[in-house]
Amino acid sequence: MNSLFLERLHSPERPVIVFDGAMGTNLQVQELTADDFGGLEYEGCNEYLVMTKPEAVAKVHRDFFSAGADVIETDTFGGSTFVLAEYGLQDQTYEMNKVAAELAKCCTAEFSTPDKPRFVAGSMGPGTKLPTLGHITYDELLAAFTVQAEGLYDGGVDLFIVETCQDVLQIKAALNAIEAVFEKKGTRLPLMVSVTMETTGTMLVGSDITAVVSILEPYPIDILGLNCATGPDLMTEHVKYLSETSPFVVSCVPNAGLPENIGGHAHYKLTPMELRMALHRFVEDLGVQVIGGCCGTRPDHIAALAQISQELAPKQRQVRLCQGEGEKGGKGPRPALNYPPAAASIYGAQPYDQDNSFLIVGERLNASGSRKVRELLNEDDWDGLIAIAKKQVKEGAHILDVNVDYVGRNGEADMHEIVSRLVTNVTLPLMLDSTEWTKMEAGLKVAGGKCILNSTNYEDGDERFFKVLELAKTYGAGVVIGCIDEDGMARTAEKKFQIAQRAYRDALEYGLPPHELFFDTLALPISTGIEEDRE
């Protein structure tokens, strides 16, 4: 990937990169009329302004560039198909995003110089529906975001920003949509993800910052940070955790404080100097390198932030750089940095290395080994199955194995149903257990957390082995690898080790890091009655 933006981001001087401020706030002060939006039925659809009154959007872009911003975001925060459908504009999704990107690029050309290059970030907001809560399916999100991402890409954006994220499953869908566009176009662009932590200290669906880092660590993103919801004061602990743990460049794009209702309108009280002082500390003490403003921020806020970039460089912290593609699409081993390898539920992370225990996987929710589970499945008693899961949580399990392999039932539907209930009812990560990869994927499409896939092997040759690795890369998961090859289950220690070595090499070449690989040696007790195991 040849990217001037990344060259600047990772240059030896490591400059502070300043994003723009609030698009919505700065459109509102222009006192636009219904006619400006193309009629009453479109009033409030800021994204449509790139078609009906582009000069209003261009004014916002130019004002922020004049204030000193390095990066402006396209007017496409709500530019996904399912959001535009609320205005009957879904058929214009691709064109509107493309036009928005082209408009921003035209403004960029007016201000960019060799000494201070300017960039356009393609904005992809969360939309109005949360997949973890069942408002929309993963596949519907993926399709919608793919159309939006292709429009932004074809319009010439320099990077993508998936922002104001409220649901980790939504982030996965957006990232995979962008990856699909990269694969189609043959060239990657930088990726930035910005999550929103509410005043409760978590994302809207309950994810804490440890879960965010663990879930997103497997993905090839460049910048991870926070935006919206609060002012910088309530972001401090989250930013500190990112600074100490995240392998990515850290960003912070706060509101101008918490909104206050004055005369029926949201009012933000944080002054430009107050915002500058807060982010100055984040840059100097925590190594935040990307800053900007969200709701309530005007050009004078961004001008104050631009002064930071002229005054100091961020505190040094190690970040992961993009690496060359492997032969099978992988990126090779990645540096561990300070990230503690972990699985995660949507609520929090579960480190693989336990301080006072080995990693305990609860395996009672297993149709292959439990008559009780099979009976509950036959009765469609989902509450009963959830009760089994909750009991294992109380008994000290760290991860819950989920297996619905039961002849005569629709395993994909069962996996979808049970996992969609587990993710909001238990706080532990899930191990999706099946001999069929389609069942694993059915669970992955509703599991926003970071799962472990159980399992893959070479029994059917390379095809199934790599298919499960593909799922792990796509959905950000760990993998259990069984010591089985085309000749069957390995019986001797030497043969088991040979298979494990083969799998390890293949997995690393494919792009999975060592800390996401678990090996099941399939050592059976002599009580099985297999004579050769008694030798």
Automatic annotation (TrEMBL):
Entries under SUPFAM superfamilies matching the protein: Dihydropteroate synthetase-like (SSF51717), Homocysteine S-methyltransferase (SSF82282)
Domain Hcy-binding: 5-309
Catalysed transformations (reactions): (6S)-5-methyl-5,6,7,8-tetrahydrofolate + L-homocysteine = (6S)-5,6,7,8-tetrahydrofolate + L-methionine
Principal EC category: transferase
Protein name per Swiss-Prot or TrEMBL: Methionine synthase
Necessary cofactors: methylcob(III)alamin; Zn(2+)
GO molecular function, one term: cobalamin binding
Organism annotation: Leptolyngbya cf. ectocarpi LEGE 11479
Pfam families membership: Pterin_bind (PF00809), S-methyl_trans (PF02574)
Binding positions (Zn(2+)): 228, 294-295
